[in-house]
Specification:
This protein has 509 residues and is an alpha/beta fold. It folds into three domains: 156 residues, NAD(P)-binding Rossmann-like Domain (Rossmann fold); 131 residues, no CATH class; 194 residues, no CATH class. Helix content is 49%, strand content 13%. The chain contains 18 helices and 14 strands. The protein has an eight-stranded mixed beta sheet. The protein has a two-stranded antiparallel ribbon with strand order 9-10. A two-stranded parallel sheet has the order 11-14. A hairpin with a 2-residue loop joins strand 12 and strand 13. Helix 4 crosses helix 6. The chain is flat. The two termini are 48 Å apart.
């Protein structure tokens, strides 16, 4: 697979420095109509297939255990070789089903041959078990009734599960949850050829919703193979923030390097996959350099960060560790709430709009640290040292970051924050009288993942006041490093370092 050094390419592109300005672009009526359509959250086929594997492994072992407990255990008592055999049959069955190629979304959609393949693989499993027990001279150690019942009941249970899975996948397919919503960049003959090639593929999970171009309507057609042209590339940024877009495919030739780089500089802030179609390219790489959408070769330009099982791992990490932290820190939060109430009039909690994942506005919770009549919900004026708006209790909880603890409610209950990630900034926060997206090129790229309570920038000393452009620039650089290098171990490391970073209060007011 060919990997591009995107940061180098983007730095060298001659494009506007603020491609994702805070003021939304006005989309075309067609783009507005598509963006307004309800779009459910998509499900990862990789996670779905893995979940089905786990469920079927559990079902196979459950059937064997139930029959053993109901028939063998009352007659012969407990024997270790039965549980071991059940585990072995579960593992062999999972491998056999994988070899039969029935862990694909297309198989889940219920084609008759999947049941034939399932029955065949299940039969092979038991033939192997019988053969192994025969040659190991262990056949007399297992009940024939148990083995025969295991085969018949297991097959019925597996087919019943697959039928239920079919009904569920059918509903998800109708809802569009298993589709990859894609747009084409390039409204010309090459774009039309790419659309035709993609739509000609059978059993494709790709849903092409429109095309964009870097040229106006006077230089590019208004439709591509029946698909509407939804606007220019600048419009695509706004469009992808209003509706779910999973994939962007460039139909431009590799030789159009400057055009591609200029468009990438605008699009890299979005949390989606970007591919460059190579089906019509005269320049050919080795087969390993390509990935494929169906049978269409593409070059991987940018990948959406934290996808598939990584999303599941991070979600579990946030919910489990976040719940533990919420319970452990509840005495501190209770004492803080009482102190705030005794120190000044007003509510204990303060809600503030901030930028979240994909630039969505989210509402985060904090302990109120400022006087009620002087609270600044938009952070138009940053808090400075000895700021008279801050209460006595507020100064302490801001220095120690205790004011951030209610954001655990965002993590555990609302799900719009992570424990670790780029810190969410208020909508009108400024550095040197410039809003952040104007002060830092590519600022919105930090919103390709869910924001967090703590982050890589914070444990490296970049917390507190951002009165200069350099401070926000360094924050963004650390945030992008975190996004590009995320792992569960990295999150654990950041959490472990956070208490030590909070001890340094020189920049926290």
């Amino acid at each position: 697979m060919l990997q591009f050094d995107t940061r180098t390419m983007l730095d060298g592109a001659s494009a506007p420095s603020n491609p994702a300005a805070a003021t939304p672009r006005v989309l075309s009526p067609t783009a507005q109509k598509i963006a307004a359509e309800p779009t459910p959250h998509g499900y990862s086929p990789i996670v779905l297939a893995g979940t089905v594997r786990l469920i079927e492994f559990a079902l196979v072992m459950l059937v064997g255990a139930v029959i053993y407990a109901a028939y063998v255990l009352p007659l012969d008592g407990f024997s270790w070789h039965y549980p071991l055999a059940i585990i072995a049959i579960g593992a062999i069955a999972t491998l056999a089903f994988q070899a039969a190629d029935i862990y694909q979304v297309q198989a889940f959609r219920g084609y008759e041959k999947q049941y034939f393949r399932l029955a065949s693989a299940w039969s092979v499993v038991f033939l192997l078990v019988i053969g192994i027990s025969f040659f190991a001279k262990a056949g007399d150690q297992f009940s024939r009734v148990w083995l025969g019942s295991y085969y018949i009941v297991g097959l019925v249970v597996l087919i019943a599960f697959r039928r239920g899975l079919f009904l569920m996948v059918q509903r998800w397919t109708q809802q569009g949850r298993l589709d990859r919503r894609a747009v084409i960049v390039g409204a010309d003959e090459k774009g039309a050829a790419l659309v035709n090639a993609l739509m000609a593929q059978r059993n494709s999970d790709l849903r092409i919703i429109g095309a964009f171009d870097d040229r106006g309507d006077d230089r590019a057609p208004t439709a591509v193979s029946g698909l509407p042209k939804l606007g220019m590339v600048d419009d695509l940024v706004e469009f992808a923030r209003r509706t779910r877009v999973d994939l962007v495919i460039f139909s431009l030739p590799i030789s159009a390097e400057q055009r591609i780089l200029q468009m990438l500089k605008k699009l890299w802030v979005l949390p989606l996959d970007i591919r460059l179609a190579a089906h019509a390219a005269t320049l050919r790489f080795r087969p390993r350099a390509y990935s494929y959408i169906g049978n269409i070769p593409v070059l991987d330009v940018l990948d959406k960060p934290i996808t598939d099982w990584d999303v599941v791992m991070k979600w579990l990490f946030d919910k489990i560790i976040g719940t533990i932290a919420l319970i452990a820190l509840s005495p501190v939060m209770l004492i803080t709430a009482i102190a705030i109430k005794l120190d000044s009039r007003g509510p204990v909690l303060f809600k503030q709009k901030r930028y979240g994942f994909n630039n969505e506005l989210i509402e985060v919770y904090k302990f109120r640290s400022m006087r009620t009549d002087q609270c600044d919900a938009t952070a138009a004026k940053l808090v400075t040292k000895d700021d008279p708006r801050v209460t006595r209790v507020g100064r302490f909880i801001r220095r120690t970051s205790i004011d951030e603890l209610p954001q655990l409610f965002n993590v555990v209950f609302k799900g719009n924050l992570s424990l670790v990630g780029p810190r969410p900034h208020a909508v009108h926060a400024k550095a040197e009288n410039r809003v952040y997206d104007e002060a830092v090129d590519g600022y919105f790229a930090r919103h390709r993942v869910k924001p967090g309570i703590t982050g890589w920038a914070q444990i490296n000393g970049w917390r507190g006041e951002t009165d200069t452009q350099e401070k926000i620039q360094r924050r963004v650089e650390h945030d992008l490093y975190y996004i590009e290098n995320w792992s569960v171990l990295f999150d654990l490391y950041i959490l472990a370092k956070t208490p030590f970073a909070l001890a340094k209060t020189e920049n926290a007011y």
